């Protein structure tokens, strides 16, 4: 799930080095009569019963405790959080998009937590586990995840003589070649917006590259490395051969474009294809609903394409006056039973143990398989600035439109990233 990162944290005076939640002795115990939990509207609209169950569980252990909730839309949450963290009225629990965590952790805005206090922490998904860790310490708890999968139209594939979803990169490109030849130059065999950096960086990581690497406590951009260049060239070839839409677009309206019926395949979070098939967006006369087939995207490396795991984490602000109760509520909300509720809503769980149970369900097997190999953004103090500057998006657009070679675009992006990646926001 793509989350907009608002990097202006405003927490320079944040207390650093707070004791981990659940520390030994009674020093971490709180006498608070209430806790305040900030969640996004996703929880309010889609799984309010889970919120109530967590409230009921902690109140049963602490009779008289009141749990207050505030819900925010994603674009509004961080601006509000930045403002309140500068005061003494911080919430006790806050939901964060997983790429939003890094600058807050770097500034000491969140309290350290003890992973052993939370269910399934030993099996947290790698892509989410990385998002709650900074400098070897843990500052949050994974909440839920979503993975990217490939979806294509079996009717379009069949018309081109393709009867089954591909299992290898060679099969995939061969099938797309047939589809492209059958449908013509104005059709996108694979609709892949150039500014979708989540997809493009999957090619980089598939080739053994990375956006940046850590060395001696410092981060250095590595898009110029041979492996990263190899991945970018593989991505560029896809754009050139199969993407015949607007090469300056991002992925925000991909499902709407896909619903117009001028493309065969897309690589996107699992919710996008069903959304495209919604009658509001399906302009194919209803052909999408029964013709969408999901499959794990094979990578050029011969392995499944590593995916960016979007999702949410839960963190405890350092200024919370009830950190122990906040940790209890988070565990009640994200424990095994809670993850089961989230899975029933179409989400991926935060751990590999429960993820394995999804593999036997045809409705979720593809997403579960795709999530096994994942990557995450550099957990560097200045990563928020990199995202805000849209450095990767601009690099990719320059490559796709031919304004820069892969090598020059990567060099320019590395230079821009290196200027800010080690600087706290």
TrEMBL record:
GO biological process: maltodextrin transmembrane transport; maltose transport
GO cellular component, one term: ATP-binding cassette (ABC) transporter complex, substrate-binding subunit-containing
Gene3D superfamilies: Periplasmic binding protein-like II (3.40.190.10)
GO molecular function per UniProt: maltose binding
Top-level taxon: Bacteria
Alphabetic keyword roster: Signal, Transport
Signal peptide range: 1-20
PROSITE patterns linked to this entry: PROKAR_LIPOPROTEIN
PANTHER family given in the database record: MALTOSE-BINDING PERIPLASMIC PROTEIN, MALTOSE_MALTODEXTRIN-BINDING PERIPLASMIC PROTEIN
Family to which the UniProt record says this protein belongs: Belongs to the bacterial solute-binding protein 1 family.
The protein, known as: Carbohydrate ABC transporter substrate-binding protein, CUT1 family
Organism: Actinacidiphila rubida
Upper classification of the organism: Bacteria, Bacillati, Actinomycetota, Actinomycetes, Kitasatosporales
């Amino acid at each position: 799930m793509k989350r907009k990162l608002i990097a202006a944290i405003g927490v320079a005076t944040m207390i650093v080095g707070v004791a981990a939640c659940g520390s030994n002795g009674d020093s971490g115990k709180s006498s608070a009569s209430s806790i305040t939990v900030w969640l996004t509207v996703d929880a309010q609209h889609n799984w309010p019963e889970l919120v109530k169950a967590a409230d009921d569980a902690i109140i049963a252990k602490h009779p008289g405790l009141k749990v207050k909730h505030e819900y925010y839309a994603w674009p509004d949450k961080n601006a509000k959080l930045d403002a309140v963290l500068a005061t003494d009225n911080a919430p006790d629990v806050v939901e964060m998009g997983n790429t939003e965590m890094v600058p807050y952790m770097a500034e000491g805005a969140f309290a350290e937590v003890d992973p052993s206090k939370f269910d399934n922490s030993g099996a947290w998904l790698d892509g989410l586990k990385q998002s709650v860790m900074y400098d070897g310490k843990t500052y949050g708890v994974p909440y839920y995840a979503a993975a990217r999968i490939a979806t294509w139209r079996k009717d379009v594939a069949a018309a081109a003589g393709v009867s089954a979803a591909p299992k290898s990169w060679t099969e995939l490109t061969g099938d797309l070649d047939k589809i492209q030849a059958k449908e013509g130059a104005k059709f996108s065999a694979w609709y892949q917006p150039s500014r979708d950096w989540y997809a493009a960086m999957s090619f980089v990581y598939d080739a053994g590259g990375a956006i940046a690497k850590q060395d001696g406590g410092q981060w250095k951009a590595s898009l110029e490395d041979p492996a990263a260049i190899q991945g970018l060239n593989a991505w560029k070839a896809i754009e050139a051969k199969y993407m015949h839409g607007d090469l300056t677009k991002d992925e925000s309206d991909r499902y709407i474009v896909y619903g117009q019926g001028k493309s065969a395949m897309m690589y996107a979070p699992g919710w996008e294809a069903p959304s495209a098939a919604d009658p509001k967006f399906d302009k194919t006369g209803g052909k999408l609903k029964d013709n969408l087939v999901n499959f794990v995207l094979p990578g050029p490396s011969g392995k499944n394409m590593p995916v960016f795991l979007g999702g949410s984490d839960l963190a405890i602000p350092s200024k919370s006056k009830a950190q122990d109760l906040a940790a209890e509520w988070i565990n009640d909300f994200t424990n095994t039973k809670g993850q089961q509720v989230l899975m029933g809503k179409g989400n991926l769980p935060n751990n590999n143990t429960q993820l394995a149970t999804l593999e036997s369900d045809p409705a979720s097997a593809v997403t579960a398989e795709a999530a096994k190999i994942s990557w995450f953004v550099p957990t560097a103090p200045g990563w928020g600035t990199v995202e805000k500057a849209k450095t990767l998006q601009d690099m990719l657009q320059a490559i796709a439109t031919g304004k820069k070679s892969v090598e020059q675009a990567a060099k320019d992006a590395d230079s821009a990233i290196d200027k800010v990646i080690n600087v706290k926001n």
